[in-house]
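Data availability excerpt. The first of two example chains:
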Amino acid sequence: MNLVIDLSHLVKGHFELTSEQNDAFLNTADVADILNLSVRTIQRYAHSGIIKYKKVGGTNFYLKSDVFALLKNR
């Protein structure tokens, strides 16, 4: 399990975009914390298209800007 978590952090760091774009990828738990929702609700949002995501090795990643746009429109 620790290997998966370490890999997740490695992938997350790898997918951080340049500072010019000022955006990064967040995992499902991060998004749930930001939006104050359950992890399962975030998964439902992703599946229904409410929030865009990229799947990398079984882990969903969300653009920080998309998460804050959703937060702003709630």
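And the second chain:
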Amino acid sequence: MKGSIMLLSTCIAIIASDYARIVRYAERRSRFLDALDWSQMTPEFCRRTSMADEWVNDETAEAWLYLQHLDSRLAREGDGPIEMFARFVIPPHLLLAAVPA
């Protein structure tokens, strides 16, 4: 899969925005889930929610690590062209994963 060619600083700005979006999503999701009465939820809902939690945690960590890698690369190499492959996007099915059926 081909990525887009851009300056490293532009790539960092895009990934920082992706990271911030996931963090905001995680915070809103956490507040929503904290307000639920879990004793009223189905086992399937709990399973889907747990899987979504895992995705959010993994994706947040990966975005942070990628951002750190790009920052260190900028310090080491300067602001040259880079082919960006990674984007961190919340899949639509996870936006619905925390809504009981």
